[in-house]
Specification:
Elements: H1 4-18, E1 23-28, E2 51-55, E3 58-63, E4 66-71, E5 77-81, E6 91-97, E7 102-106, E8 113-117, H2 141-148, H3 155-159, H4 170-180, H5 193-212, E9 252-257, E10 260-265
Antiparallel strand pairs: 1-6, 2-3, 3-4, 4-8, 5-7, 6-7, 9-10
Helix pairs in contact: 1-5, 2-5, 4-5
């Protein structure tokens, strides 16, 4: 599933082709996504794109009268194409721009969405209760430490809770906890202020580095230009069960936690 770095990579890839441009036509080839494609998207036609934003793992395409809210689901991707390029199977939605560019949404599993919000997009039910962005100043050690008090849930499960902080998906949670030296199964309530500081710094570092590398390619993720992300080549624990830790050579362990595969080093993480 595309996570925050993959979505941010996509946003940066499509923004230059959309920002300030007018949308000539919206083409819906198959509306059967996780929720039916919003018929109100017709409001995009003839409108100029004022911003291409990201909130958590949602892409927001703003026009004067509202916002298209896009989620890539399990297998979705957005690509810039030319009108001459033939449609591929599973190309479900297109935005045809006045400048000749075509934004195509491709989703074999059809678990993403294209929704419409006429008011402030952040008031949409999917967005209004989200926590701070992990790379914003609002996500800091004090916020995380306060969120851990009296919480017996595992720290890995806590940092993957979008009400605490958005966008820390399974891969990045495992990598950040390794960098911070914290075992993923530790009770959140047992995290000290110093550990909260280390963990916030690690989350920001891991996500920033992943964005710089274009995301992590697992299964079928590619960026908006069709190229894969390369952060997977730098993973220290995720997906490396029974392999040697790159720092201490101990064996990387794996277990299911919060219904997700979790990886850690029992020597480097306490």
């Amino acid at each position: 599933m595309p996570e925050l770095p993959e979505v941010e990579t996509t946003r940066r890839g499509i923004e230059p082709h959309l920002l300030g441009q007018s949308i000539a036509k919206v083409c819906v080839h198959d509306s059967r996504l996780r929720w039916p494609v919003a018929p109100q998207l017709v409001a995009l036609e003839g409108a100029s794109v004022t911003a291409v934003r990201r909130r958590a793992k949602y892409l927001l395409i703003d026009v004067p009268d509202g916002t298209a809210i896009v989620h890539l689901g399990m297998s979705g991707s957005l690509r810039i194409a030319s009108p001459q390029q033939p449609l591929r199977k599973h190309d479900h939605v297109e935005l045809i721009m006045d400048n000749g560019a075509v934004l195509r949404y491709h989703d074999p599993r059809r678990f993403g969405c294209w929704l419409w919000q006429a008011a402030d997009a952040t008031t949409h039910p999917l967005l209004e209760k989200l926590g701070p962005e992990p790379l914003d100043a609002a996500f800091n050690a004090e916020h995380l430490f306060a969120s851990t008090r009296n919480r017996r849930v595992a720290i890995k499960v806590l940092i993957m809770n979008a009400a605490v902080v958005v966008g820390v998906g399974n891969i990045y949670a495992s990598e950040s906890l390794f960098m911070a030296g914290i075992r993923p199964g530790r009770s959140a309530a047992r995290i000290s202020r110093a550990e909260a500081t280390r963990l916030v710094d690690a989350i920001k570092h891991v996500l920033t580095r992943s964005i710089e590398q274009g995301g992590t390619t697992l299964r079928d993720f590619v960026g908006s230009d069709g190229t894969p992300g390369y952060f997977a080549q730098q993973l220290l624990v995720y997906g490396r069960a029974d392999e040697a830790c790159r720092l201490c050579t101990a064996t990387i362990k794996q277990k299911v936690m919060g219904q997700r595969s979790t990886f850690w080093c029992s020597v480097c993480q306490k």
